[in-house]
Amino acid sequence: MADEKLCKHKESCVKNACKGLVVSFLQSLAAKSAFHIVFQFLLKRGYKNPVQCLLKLISLDTLKFVGFASLMNFLYKATLCAMRNYRKKEDGLNHIVAGAVGGLSIAFEDQERRETWALYFFARFIDVSLRKGAKKYLPNTNVNNIEMYLFMIMIVFNVYCYGKEKDILVKSYYNFLKSVFSPSKAEQSVMNAWSAESAIRMPLNK
């Protein structure tokens, strides 16, 4: 399957794809574990019951996250090698098809996190498109500032939704923002009133 002129990895294509699967599995498991432990201790839950905190890592939620990350890497590498072997050439089409097939792995992920991942990759797509367009049509523009402007716009929108349109946010993401901002009871009461007013004025399900 391997073509020495096209595939740059030293091992066979099958071994390279399997290696990517294992490495991504370990890396995503480590990232999930680190985030879980830090987040639990920041919320002071880990101090109360550290054993229970660690046992929560062994769950279907962890398996879904790790499976999504490792499968995406595996499918991308395997499809890319297959396209190179089938078409006998290397160009952007190989990567587009491999990326599309790799994206199917999102079906393995938790339903609530699918929206978060989709929004994240969509934001990266916009970022890359703007950078490419600026480089081609506005060569004197500092493209490094595009990230900053996009981040500012997204933060404004997210904070607005957090304060007034919480029903349109993914529940896990809303809980994350709530833990970050730690609103007082008075602030939470005001935001709940805003959200209730918005739900009446602009209901999601008509």
From TrEMBL:
It holds the Pfam family Tim17. The chain crosses the membrane at residues 21-43, 63-80, 146-163. Keywords: Membrane, Transmembrane, Transmembrane helix. It comes from the Eukaryota. Coiled coil: none annotated. The keyword Secreted does not apply. PANTHER family: TRANSMEMBRANE PROTEIN 135, TRANSMEMBRANE PROTEIN 135-RELATED. This is Peroxisomal membrane protein 4. It comes from Blepharisma stoltei. The lineage of its organism: Eukaryota, Sar, Alveolata, Ciliophora, Postciliodesmatophora.
